[in-house]
Amino acid sequence: MNLIVAVDNNWAVGYNGGLLTYLPGDLPYFKEKTMNKVVVMGRKTLESLPKGKPLKGRKNIILTRDKDFTCEDTVVCHSKDEVLDYITRYESDEVFIIGGAEIYNLFLDNCEKAYVTKIYGKLPADKYINNLDELDNWNITWKSEMKEHEGLKFQWTIYENNKLK
Ligand code: FOL
C-alpha cells in the first residue's frame, strides 16, 4: 500500500479539521493517483471531504472506533487489522492511505511508497505526521519541477520505503 499527502516544512498535514491550504493542481494530482483504487481514511477525514461524502470512483474504507458508525457507499472498519484483512481479500493492485495524521502514522510501516506534496513554508497547523527525511528506511526517488501558487512554492515527490523492498 501507499500513502498520499501534502505537508509543509514541519510535516504538518492539517489545520482546524481540514487541509493546510488549497493548491491548484494538487487535488487533481491526488484524484489522478487514487482514481479506481482503494482509499483508506479515518472518520474525521471522511467528514472533511466535500459534503462529508466518500470519494467518487474509488473504493472508500473508513476507519473508526465507533461500532454504530455507518456511511453509504463505504466499507467501515474498526481496527488496523480489519483494514489489512479487507485489503488482502479485495485484491486491488493499489491501496492509498489518504489520512488524516493519526491514520498516516498508523499505517506508515505498511506503506511501500509515499506520494508527498511538499509545500515550502510554515503554515498554520495542528496535525503532523512523521518526518520521512528523518527515517533511515525512507528515501526520495522522484521529484517534480518546482511549482508556485500565490508565492507558495510546492513540489510533488515520491518516497520509497526500503524496508519493504
Ligand atoms: N494528498 C495530496 N497530495 N493533497 C491533498 O490535498 C490531500 N488531501 C487528502 C488526502 N491526501 C492528499 C484529504 N483531503 C478532496 C478533498 C480533500 C481531501 C482529499 C480529496 C477532494 O475533493 N477530491 C476530489 C476532487 C479533486 C479535484 O478538485 O480535482 C476527488 O475526486 O479526488
Automatic annotation (TrEMBL):
Q: Which SUPFAM superfamilies match?
A: Dihydrofolate reductase-like
The EC number on file is: 1.5.1.3
The pathway noted for it is:
Cofactor biosynthesis; tetrahydrofolate biosynthesis; 5,6,7,8-tetrahydrofolate from 7,8-dihydrofolate: step 1/1
* GO terms, biological process: dihydrofolate metabolic process; folic acid metabolic process; one-carbon metabolic process; tetrahydrofolate biosynthetic process
GO CC terms, sorted: cytosol
Q: Which GO terms describe its molecular function?
A: dihydrofolate reductase activity; NADP binding
Q: Name one Pfam family in it.
A: DHFR_1
Q: Which family does it belong to?
A: Belongs to the dihydrofolate reductase family.
Q: Which PANTHER family does this one have?
A: DIHYDROFOLATE REDUCTASE
Protein name per its UniProtKB record: dihydrofolate reductase
- Which organism does this record belong to? Vallitalea guaymasensis
